[in-house]
């Protein structure tokens, strides 16, 4: 059965792409946004000098933000005390997740009595006010019931990925407090491109991007 899709040749497609005018200044701003949001302060400073693109926040604040994020990634939740107190005052969910992470680190280090005391004094009152917090607290405390956490149903709480998740939440909260987007624009644009290609796949056969690591135009799967 003949395909009803419109056929767009490589020559025609490349011509259409060349007709799209993208300002270099806009591309530079997109790159700076990514570097600033992700915390690559040295790269951002170098890019600022080379492209003459000014970031929309003070680059010095990135160093402080990344120090807190890195500390949480390493399990040093106490470093969060360096945060602007208003960030935690206005974000109770973040406060709970940081306290949860501290509890996880106490359990990881075998400080059972201290973990129980911390859970009872700091987290239990929050659980009484919020059912979802209570459920998360119960999951975390259940780690103490297993000698071999590798076979524990909630053992993923001790994975590095849990630290990274909390650290990312901290990073996003700091960015929001600085009136900056919490997520870089570049990944969102890539997701939009993937969505657009998937939509176009239903209507036409054209050379698109299959491997985004090299962005080479290739025939799309029919």
Give a structural overview.
By secondary structure, this protein is mainly α. 62% of the residues lie in helices and 5% in strands. It has ten helices and four strands, in the order E-H-H-H-H-H-H-H-H-H-H-E-E-E. The strands form two sheets. The protein has a two-stranded parallel ribbon. Strands 3-4 form a two-stranded antiparallel ribbon. Strand 3 (207-209) and strand 4 form a beta hairpin. Helix 2 packs antiparallel against helix 3, helix 6 packs antiparallel against helix 7 (112-129) and helix 6 (92-108) packs antiparallel against helix 9. The chain is elongated. The model has no long low-confidence stretch (mean pLDDT 88).
* Poorly predicted runs: none
Query: Major sheet: size, sense and barrel closure?
Result: 2 strands, parallel
Structural class: mainly alpha
Number of separate helices: 10
Report the count of strand segments: 4
User: What would you call the shape?
Assistant: elongated
Write the layout of secondary structure elements.
Layout: E1 6-7, H1 10-19, H2 24-38, H3 41-51, H4 59-73, H5 85-89, H6 92-108, H7 112-129, H8 131-141, H9 160-177, H10 185-201, E2 204-205, E3 207-209, E4 217-219
Parallel strand pairs: 1-2
Antiparallel strand pairs: 3-4
